[in-house]
Amino acid sequence: MATGHEHTVKAFDQDISQLRALISQMGGLAEQAIHDAMKALSRGDTALAKEVRKKDKQIDAIEAELEKLIVRVIALRAPMADDLREVIAALKIAAVIERIGDYAKNIAKRVPMIHTEGEDRIEAISILPAMAQLASDMVHDVLDAFSARDAEAAARICERDNALDDFYDSIFRTLVTFMVENPRTVSQVAHLLFVAKNLERIGDHATNVAEMVYFAATGRYLADETATG
Amino acid sequence: MATGHEHTVKAFDQDISQLRALISQMGGLAEQAIHDAMKALSRGDTALAKEVRKKDKQIDAIEAELEKLIVRVIALRAPMADDLREVIAALKIAAVIERIGDYAKNIAKRVPMIHTEGEDRIEAISILPAMAQLASDMVHDVLDAFSARDAEAAARICERDNALDDFYDSIFRTLVTFMVENPRTVSQVAHLLFVAKNLERIGDHATNVAEMVYFAATGRYLADETATG
Q: Residue B13 burial by CB count (10 A; 0-12/13-18/19+): exposed, middle or buried?
């Protein structure tokens, strides 16, 4: 009996490890996608932008694989309480990472509309890479926190989201001013507004994952902690 | 034995009915939120906009309730194959509806930034309600298709997403032209660009739900059908 139970536990732990490995893999691809999309944007490299859009299918494929694995894990192991919660959390985190990948893909999609033929280089682009770095660092660090099940690291990531929001507000104002002063480029700069918004949303999603990591590690909601302390 | 099995089946059916009722309730609230957000936008009614933002918490609360119910259903009933897939689909559909609510909330959030004091009425607002109607009809109809498990109705909703995308492209161009001609209102109209984008995303999400409804009803992926047919 004891051996049978041990076997089941071990199998479940292996399933969880596999789930976590798939999530890390998705996260790495999403981080790379942000990096490549911004590189394509800065350089006007439409070939690289196309590559980012194509590679997004890999992220979607891993999410689909992960979902199948989860259905199998639940059906075969019938996990209880905490274990089940961990499995459901994996499903939710994967969905959030898939969305981060979508935002990167959306940035890549805008590259040809921003670098239109015959147009001068849009100076306003130069303010975006620093914001992108902030957002992609949040994604990187939340994946580390997830791997290490590190609640404190997760909490620190949530704090950084405010800085990213301020950055976004400032860029919004800068781009609006730029549009007013350069009416010829309004269409391209409007696309840059969406790029900035996508980066801000990437930060929101990294924060969502951080909150899930915090909850999984401590059983407490981070929002409650910060509201009271 | 037979009675015991019947009991379990009945209890599971009741759980599923409850899950579906919660999803319909969320959907109704999301549809109302789109409607109210657009009314607030058209009239510059910041009090109504605030109401929409407050009410979004109800949608979030139902999603949280639904998640708890799902964990309980899986733990207690240990559903197999098809049943488990239906439960997981409910979790995913609820997450999408929660996002639709978020987009409506985001539109409401922009109302005070679009109707700034001392500014003239931004004429460009008048082109958005028709697009909003299209998007909110898609949400309404996909919820009907979900309730009726109607695969054909779900397929028709996906077709309408192209019309909404074209509408968005046309509005994007109109708003850009408006900005060029009215540099004084660039900031407000930039917020309108995001409103239009939110409506376009609502349509994307209604389409996602329609695809899930189609798959649940037929066991086939809609994308495969339309690709070959």
A: exposed
Angstrom distance (rounded) from CA A185 to CA A22: 42
Q: How far is A223 from chain B (nearest CA, A)?
A: 14
Map residue A120 onto helix, strand or coil.
coil
Contact A71 B88 (CB under 8 A): yes
Dist. CA A202–CA A35, nearest whole Å: 12
Do B186 and A179 touch, CB atoms closer than 8 A? yes
Give, in words, the CATH class of B2-228.
mainly alpha
Give residue-wise pLDDT tens across range A98-115. 999 999 999 999 999 999
Among the listed residues A68, A23, A60, the one whose alpha carbon sits nearest the alpha carbon of residue B84: A68
- Please, are residues A204 and A137 in contact by the beta-carbon 8 Å criterion? no
Rounded-to-10 torsion of CA A194, A91, B28, B157: 70
Q: In this predicted complex, what is the ipTM?
A: 0.82
* Length of chain B in terms of residues written: 229
| A59: DSSP letter | H
> Residues 92-131, chain A: which have Cβ within 8 Å of B?
92, 95
Block residue for tokens 């995303």: B201
